[in-house]
């Protein structure tokens, strides 16, 4: 039986790039240590934040190798997102992850010939799960990007019945009503990871305690403090900390698209050199970066 025990905060890691857009593998050990030292226990490799949809399969495999290697010294659970490519490549990546020792998989839906029903989505995820039968497999629900709008409670129920190693979903939606229904549909050995950083306090009140959020790279302690306040039933403190996190995110979002602004923010906050976004995305300007830094100082999030 396939077990899945990753819970809590799972940062989707950036893929560090050099200025010439080659991958900067040398940063990954330091990056992994930084996350582990802040109490992070698991990471997602190859998500939206990691930009693997823009990388070749060869490069994706090398990045996976680098994270599997650092897991040996940091004890991080390595989840890998294998979707966002032609199906043959997705299946190749899934079986590769099982072979090299990744801990779990996440997959996007087919992005061109999109699934249009619960059954066709289950069919797709089943193909991925069969390519790595010994690994837990989760589905990546991100309708804002994938445009696959399918009822998630119905999907989860059917996927659970049909796929032995189906272990949950990443739910990147602000619809916490649907999120609560998904949580109810899951079994004890499955998990739902929220993908909405500005909603972790209200989600935790609904019982959604795990999340995959880009800003856990930048502000892991703040996110942990929000969840701890909810656990203590200190609603006022949870709300105040959530507001701080939301303002910190808004300090970035006015300056451009998600990955370019967050890569800049990561360098400002942590000093870890994650470099520019992968093409076709473009880095933000130095002026925009200075404005983000100034806003974070005003919020007293950085010194």
From TrEMBL:
EC number(s) per entry: 4.1.3.3
Pathway named in the protein's UniProt entry: Amino-sugar metabolism; N-acetylneuraminate degradation
Domain of life: Eukaryota
SMART domains: DHDPS
InterPro entries: Aldolase_TIM, DapA-like
Signal sequence annotation: none
GO MF terms held by the record: N-acetylneuraminate lyase activity
Keyword Cytoplasm tagged: yes
Keyword Cytoplasm: yes
Principal EC category: lyase
Any one annotated GO CC term: cytoplasm
Sites where the protein binds pyruvate: 49, 212
Annotated keywords: Carbohydrate metabolism, Cytoplasm, Lyase, Schiff base
Catalytic activity of the protein: aceneuramate = aldehydo-N-acetyl-D-mannosamine + pyruvate
One Pfam family cited in the UniProt record for this chain: DHDPS
Active-site residues per Swiss-Prot or TrEMBL entry: 140, 170
Subcellular location: Cytoplasm
Protein family membership: Belongs to the DapA family. NanA subfamily.
Oligomer and partners: Homotetramer.
Protein name, entry field: N-acetylneuraminate lyase
Annotated organism of origin: Papilio xuthus (Asian swallowtail butterfly)
């Amino acid at each position: 039986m396939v077990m899945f025990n990753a819970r809590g905060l799972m940062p989707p890691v950036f893929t560090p790039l050099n200025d010439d857009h080659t991958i900067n593998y040398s940063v990954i050990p330091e990056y992994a240590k930084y996350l582990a030292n802040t109490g992070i226990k698991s990471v997602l490799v190859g998500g939206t934040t990691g930009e693997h949809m823009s990388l070749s399969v060869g490069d994706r495999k090398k990045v996976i190798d680098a994270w599997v290697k650092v897991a040996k010294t940091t004890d991080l659970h390595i989840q890998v997102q294998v979707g966002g490519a032609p199906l043959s490549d997705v299946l190749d990546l899934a079986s590769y992850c099982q072979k090299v020792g990744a801990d779990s998989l996440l997959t996007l839906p087919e992005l061109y010939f999109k699934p249009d029903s619960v059954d066709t989505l289950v069919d797709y995820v089943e193909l991925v799960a069969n390519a790595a039968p010994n690994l837990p497999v989760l589905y990546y629900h991100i309708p804002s990007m994938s445009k696959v709008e399918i009822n998630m409670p119905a999907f989860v129920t059917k996927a659970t019945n049909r796929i032995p190693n189906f272990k949950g979903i990443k739910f990147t939606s602000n619809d916490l009503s649907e999120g609560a229904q998904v949580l109810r549909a899951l079994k004890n050995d499955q998990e739902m990871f929220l993908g909405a950083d500005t909603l972790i306090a209200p989600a935790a009140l609904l019982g959604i305690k795990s999340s995959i959020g880009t800003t856990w790279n930048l502000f892991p302690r703040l996110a942990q403090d929000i969840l701890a306040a909810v656990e203590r039933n200190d609603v006022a403190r949870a709300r105040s900390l959530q507001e701080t996190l939301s303002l910190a995110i808004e300090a970035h979002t006015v300056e451009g698209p998600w990955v370019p602004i967050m890569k800049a923010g990561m360098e400002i906050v942590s000093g870890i050199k994650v470099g520019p976004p992968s093409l076709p995305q473009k880095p933000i300007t130095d002026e925009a970066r200075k404005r983000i830094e100034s806003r974070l100082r005003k919020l007293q999030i950085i010194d």
